[in-house]
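Researcher: Structure prediction, please.
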Amino acid sequence: MDIQERAEYYLSIAEDVFGPRVNEWKFYGVEITEGSTNPHIKYYPESGEIAISLTPKIIDGINLSYQLAHEIAHLLHPSMNYYTHEMDQTIVLNEGISVFFSELILSMEYEISPEDRIKALKMNLSSSYQEAYAFVYHIINKDREIIKKLRSIQPLINRITVNEILSVNPEIELAVAQKLVEPFMNSK
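Model: Predicted structure follows.
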């Protein structure tokens, strides 16, 4: 399966797990961008297209699976407004979902024990990503469908509110809901 087919496959899994993607942007595909240091979503506002940009150093193996899955999760709810081209502030929930989805893909594709995945997570991700993942893992353990439910109310993850989280599942602790909607700040 080539990288474009893999992206489409991951997207179908992400939509099954988290609900349909916001379809204003046309998914252009995956690009390998020389000189780029981090995988990211790349916007082409003039054509209304969106792409996943990966670095040449991660075009195969477990790193490809992990990073492609991470960006696919972001693709479900792009941060740039299609009409105004303004960017929404990324919240903890958004990054936590992306790490959660990467972990899900790794568990499906590789025979890696949960303990080894957690060890790799701690070695390869900043504490901010680890914390975002832990909060999302916590709410998904309480309600497997919570992200789908939230996205049925507000498809754009970065715009989800504390009240929406608590209305979807009152068992979620207020402090957790508040943390999930905080701006995501990446730290080392």
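Model: Helices lie at 3-18, 61-75, 92-109, 114-124, 127-142, 146-153, 162-168, 174-180.
Researcher: Thanks, that helps.
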